[in-house]
Amino acid sequence: MKKSVLIIGLVIAAGATFAQKKVTTSAIVSFDATTSKDALPKADNKTVVASLDTKKGTVAFEAIVKNFAFSNPMIQDHFNAESWMNSEKFSTAAFTGNITNLSAINFKKDGTYTAQVEGDLTIHGETQKVKTTATIVVSGSTITTKSDFTVKLEDYKVSGPAIGAGKVSKEPKITVSAEFK
Amino acid sequence: MSNEKKKPGALRKKLLIGGLIFLLAGAAVVWYIFTEKFADTTGEKAAYTVTADALIQEFSQNDSLANIKYAEKIVVVSGIVSETESADTTINIKFTDTTTGSYAIFAFQEQHLAEAKAIKVGDQVSIKGSCSGGAFSKILDAEFITFKRCALN
């Protein structure tokens, strides 16, 4: 009897542990490097892997760079080219970080929360510290997250004539949104 | 004598017209390049036609080689839908290898979203899209292969 209770307890505990880490493979990362001179350099990647551990407060995402879909074929080619993202060599972009004000967010109670997020963002093989805020909406068992921030391309050793000429923003806006169920 | 005097003027006129045509042609080419949009994938010719199981296995065995073969190519993939995953107003379709968790995922072209939303888990479908390659996910501990601009084949 004691053994059965122990096994049931362990199974429930294991289930609870797994439930704390939520994962989606359809997070969206949007990239907007448009300027007054060029409205084309913007794209969405809709197949980003993202995770959120509601107990530990860890967050992460991984994106395949070539899956940023541009409307214009030439801009997409430039984006992936060796002189810019070099996606042949640096095929993924990734983020791993933490919610630093985890106690301010109640994942068990419906509501809208502001999370402070810090972590390491790797683009073009370069890793930089990133500090941003994210909006977290809890609605039943669904958690929706959204964060906007900018990156300095020079920090990630991304350069090129189009950036110098002002056709591509030196500080593109990145938007990360994910829905965890 | 008067004819000889007219020649430089006529030449200048021809050069001007030629230059103008050249400029207009150049402007037309630039305009075309900058306003060009990706074509509807439905009308694109596929470089490869594979089953989802075979594709996932190929990437899992050696994703470097598989990336060289498939990345930025139009590929038709058929299989049984393991999951439909909504994201914002869009929906992605997945084929998953249930033993390893590795999967191929398809983001649809705007004009084909309605057909993607009609797909159900368990449906046998064939999807045509631009393969963006695959990578090993540290989050999932599995291989993931992504496609953009997809349409039902």
In words, what does this structure look like?
The complex is a heterodimer of chains A (181) and B (153). By secondary structure, chain A is an alpha+beta fold. Chain A is built from three helices and eight strands, in the order H-E-E-E-H-E-E-E-E-H-E. Chain A has helices at residues 2-20, 73-80, 161-164, and strands at 21-32, 42-53, 58-64, 92-99, 111-123, 126-139, 142-150, 173-180. In chain A, a hairpin with a 2-residue loop joins strand 5 and strand 6. Chain A starts with a helix and ends with a strand. With 153 residues, chain B is of the alpha/beta class. Helices cover 37% and strands 35% of the residues of chain B. Chain B contains four helices and seven strands, in the order αβααββββαββ. Chain B has helices at residues 2-35, 52-61, 63-70, 113-117, and strands spanning 48-51, 74-80, 83-87, 90-96, 103-108, 124-137, 142-152. In chain B, strands 1-2-6-7-5-4-3 form a seven-stranded mixed beta sheet. In chain B, helix 2 packs across helix 3. Chain B is elongated, with a radius of gyration of 25 Å. Chain A binds chain B through residues 23-28, 40, 46-47, 49-51, 60-62, 64, 66-67, 69, 71-74, 91-92, 94, 177, 179, and chain B through 33-38, 67, 71-72, 85-88, 90, 92, 94, 103, 105, 107, 132-135, 137-140, 144, 146-149.
Strand content of chain A: over 45%
Using only C-alpha atoms, the radius of gyration of chain B works out to 25 Å
Gross geometry of chain A: elongated
Question: What are the low-pLDDT stretches of chain A, counting only 5+ consecutive residues below 50?
Answer: 10-18
SS summary, helix count of chain B: 4
Annotation, overall tally of beta strands of chain A:
8
Pairing-aware structural class of the strands and helices of chain A? alpha+beta
Biggest sheet of chain B: strands, sense, closure? 7 strands, mixed
Q: Could you give the distance between the termini of chain B?
A: 73 Å
Order the strands across the largest sheet of chain A as they lie in space: 1-2-3-4-5-6-7-8
Q: From the alpha-carbon coordinates, what is the Rg of chain A to the nearest angstrom?
A: 19 Å
Identify the quaternary structure here.
heterodimer
Decide which structural class fits the backbone of chain B: alpha/beta
- What shape does the CA trace of chain B take? elongated
Q: What's the SSE pattern of chain B? A: HEHHEEEEHEE
Biggest protein-protein contact in the assembly: A-B, 28 and 32 residues
Please state how the strands of the largest beta sheet of chain B are arranged side by side: 1-2-6-7-5-4-3
Query: Level of helix content of chain A?
Result: 10-25%
Give the uncertain stretches of chain B in residue-range form.
none
**Amino-to-carboxy terminus distance of chain A:** 35 Å
User: If helices are DSSP runs of H or I spanning 4 or more residues, what is the number of helices of chain A?
Assistant: 3
